Amino acid sequence: TVADAFVAAETLALSMLPQWQCRAGDHLPLYDVAVLRCLPLRVDGVKEERQGAGGLFSFIHKTMQEFFIARALLEAARRGDDGPWKRFGRAALQQASLVHEFGVLRLMGNYLCRVDDVDKREAVAQGLLEVVRRSCRRGDGQDGEAHCLPAASLALGALVAGRVPLQGQDLSQVQVPDAYLRGIDAQNISFRGAQMQRCVLEDADLRNA
Questions:
Q1: 58-67: long-range contacts (C-beta < 8 A, 24 or more apart)?
Q2: Which residues contact 107 (CB under 8 A, 6 or more apart)?
Q3: Rounded to two decimals, what is the model's pTM?
Q4: CA 204 to CA 198: how far, in whole Å?
Q5: Largest CA distance in the chain
Q6: Cross-strand pairs, 43
Q7: Most C-beta atoms within 10 A of its C-beta, which of 35, 140, 151, 199?
């Protein structure tokens, strides 16, 4: 079905980070002809893949990959599933440019701005806040797991791009280096002890923050 095809595309998009191409393996579903026709992929070696030799897949355009990554991350945030976010964070550590993945950030922000279902928007926003808070330094003052930092930076950037109200939130001890927070309304947000090195804060309202 088309729904199955989209799920398969999300899995593939995430598995290709930070590379743009991957060789199909045991961690990917077996792509049958119907699914392949639904996906915006270039496919090479399908027959060989079916025989266990592996097949090569790539997205026709980077925007396609960005769309499926954004979709997978937003849906994971809604469900409270941190698996895709961990995968993104670990890939970002391997390739620093992923921290500023503006295509993914823009698509996530557009979704939050335009989604009509208020309950769904709220669930996604709360899930993104949880991703941000997973980056908090532990009670012993030690940093959390490294992969949480780029994931938190992207999640906070998505909240800002999606114009989600954040005034009054307690974001103490969060670690969001390099986050793109242009235009953030940070009035009365507590950033006590937060690590925000190299964050983009142009046009930010930081009164009482």
A1: 58/16, 58/20, 58/21, 59/13, 59/16, 59/20, 62/20, 62/103, 63/103, 64/40, 65/13, 65/16, 65/20, 66/101, 66/103, 66/104, 66/107, 67/107
A2: 66, 67, 70
A3: 0.79
A4: 14
A5: 62
A6: 57
A7: 151
pLDDT digits (tens, 9 = 90+) for 20-75: 544 444 444 444 444 455 566 665 554 444 444 455 667 777 788 888 889 999 99
pLDDT given at position 91 = 83
C-beta of residue 149 within 8 angstroms of C-beta of residue 157: no
CB of 181 within 8 A of CB of 156? yes
Q: Strand 21-23's sheet: what is its strand order? A: 21-23, 56-59, 41-44
Provide the 3-class DSSP secondary structure of residue 107.
Answer: helix
